[in-house]
Amino acid sequence: MKVAVAKYTIDAPRSYAEFADKQARWLGEARAAGAELAVLPEYLALELGATFGAATQGDLHASLIAIQQYHGAWLELYGLLARELRMHVVAGSFLIAAGNGRYRNRSYAFAPDGGVLWQDKLQLTGFEKRAAVIEPGDALRVFALGAVRAGIAICYDLEFPLPVRAQCEAGARLLVAPSCTDTEAGATRVRVGGLARALENRCFVAQAVTAGDAAWSPALDTNTGEAAIYAPMDVGLPADGVLAQTRGRQRWAVADLNFAALDASREQAQVANDRDWAGQGAPAIRRAALTEWSADLP
């Protein structure tokens, strides 16, 4: 499977039509590169806040209310592009109204046959908690991409091993990670999380990122990081775990993912964290005991 992850430049579209044209151009580039799956970044829908006046653009709560009018058109747009381009599309995330003035950070995936599904972000960042209107999701999913199972981990979720482990135990061999970070430290945390989850679970991780500056938006003001596709660091796979990564103004990182080779690598692995995972549950090491200093050696 050929996968493309975006280093997506945040702009200030003047209309929904302008935004839609941009999506068609970007995804068209991914398809021209041979991608069967294209991944866009977290908070993508907040770019639509630019289509409203300055007062709305500069107010996160007002932006969240305003962009809800685009939700139906959003679903229609990416569904149409997935069908026309004959490609699976993970359309970043849309902060969707969940009732009572609350929103969920939801990542939709679209299939070329017209199917659609989603995963809500489970862990909230400090920014999302301070916003006081975003709530976490309450379900963890995996889904089929042809013969391969995949899961979605939205940005901060990639830094938590147990939910990802649950997805991999349900058969996921590809983890899709739309992300958005505004500091180098944040970008590093998500990158290290991606590498760690690939190592632990013997899976591929495909991370998309936002790029550029958007002074008009309190959520998308500054964006850092590189889009990348990660693999376990082992025999027959990249020693640094990086299959592909954007550089500079490069818009897409693209890699061919060989899932048969990934599974076969377990048999010749230097280490196999996925195979040895259960060892962590041994009763003697589930908890650490405080040990007193002693002059006597055992």
TrEMBL record:
InterPro entries: C-N_Hydrolase (IPR003010), C-N_Hydrolase_sf (IPR036526), UPF0012_CS (IPR001110)
Family annotation (PROSITE patterns): CN_HYDROLASE, UPF0012
Pfam families, per the entry: CN_hydrolase
Domain of life: Bacteria
Chain ranges of the CN hydrolase domain: 1-264
Family recorded in the similarity comment: Belongs to the carbon-nitrogen hydrolase superfamily. NIT1/NIT2 family.
Protein name, per record: Nitrilase
